[in-house]
Design brief:
Elements lengths: L1 E5 L4 H6 L4 H10 L4 E5 L8 H13 L3 E6 L9 H21 L3 E4 L10 H22 L2 E5 L8 H11 L4 E6 L7 H8 L3 E6 L2 E7 L2 E6 L2 H10 L5 E4 L7 H17 L3
Parallel strand pairs: 1-2, 1-10, 2-3, 3-4, 4-5, 5-6, 6-7, 7-10
Antiparallel strand pairs: 8-9
Length: 263
């Protein structure tokens, strides 16, 4: 499997202006990555000329654009707000086509305080159905991330995906976002994954309201992904306190050891 890196891993550098997306291509190239996930937050513009320049730069560097990512929230109570999220997603489907990215990561959202859980669920399903249909027609796969809210657990994530029931919606399996029986939940979701996010740590134990974080066992993760015949990218999404400039290269080396060694 190939190793990628999410632009979000370098969010502090992007937010301070120390890093641009074109710089990020060079960073990933110099680290020996196979690709990069381009997060919508850091695009200074989505004009076609900029997207084409970025695509050409990635090609010249021998880098794949493994996917794009937006921070969608389809659980908004207001219908106009939900439509804005649909419009955003459809716009980024078109941007993904131009960039040559095969997947677009999306979030479902969480039930707003005081709102009906079932009504929110149905509204999110409707939004995702519309976006999945547009993605399918455009040759893009929506990759729904297990990211709290309606997708906090594997059961909730799969319930939502199955309710949408469209081939244009699969999963961006975040390997550090589940809590408790992390590996069991990953195993349940792995057959539906078209993209992943790899984190060094996860909340493995939850007992008596006390959460314990442990290092993710990527040898075990590889066995799970191999069993499900996943062949996509392993994309680093780094969120720890150590600066990404030192932590990401070390984590990339760990992932290469786990995923590129012979079995």
């Amino acid at each position: 499997m190939r190793i990628s890196c999410c632009a979000y891993s370098y969010r502090q550098a992007f937010q301070s202006g120390a890093l641009t997306l074109t710089d990020f291509v060079d960073v990933c190239h110099d680290l020996g990555m196979d690709g990069m996930e381009l997060t919508a937050y850091y695009f200074p513009t989505t004009e076609k000329a900029f997207l084409m320049d970025l695509k050409r730069l990635a090609h010249r560097k021998g880098m794949a654009i493994s996917g794009t990512a937006i921070g969608s929230n389809f659980a908004r109570e207001d219908a106009d707000a939900r439509q804005e999220q649909i419009d955003l997603t459809k716009a980024w489907i078109e941007n993904s086509v131009l960039l040559g990215a095969p997947t677009l990561r999306v979030f479902a959202g969480a039930v707003p305080p005081g709102a009906s859980e079932e009504q929110t669920f149905d509204q999110v399903v409707s939004c995702l159905q519309q976006c999945a249909a547009h993605a399918w027609e455009s040759g893009i796969t929506l990759a729904l991330e297990n990211h709290g809210g309606l997708t906090q657990t594997a059961v909730g994530t799969l319930r939502l995906m199955n309710a949408v029931g469209h081939p244009g919606l699969k999963l961006n399996l975040d390997l550090g976002n589940f809590e408790g029986d992390v590996y069991g939940q990953i195993e349940a979701c792995a057959p539906f994954a078209v993209a992943t996010h790899a984190k060094p740590w996860a909340t493995i134990n939850v007992a008596g309201g006390v959460k314990t974080r442990e290092r993710v066992d990527y040898g075990r993760i590889r066995r799970i992904l191999d069993q499900s015949e996943y062949r996509g990218f392993i994309a680093i999404e780094y969120e720890e306190e150590e600066p990404a400039e030192t932590a990401v290269p070390a984590f990339a080396a760990e992932l290469r050891s786990a995923f590129r060694s012979e079995r």
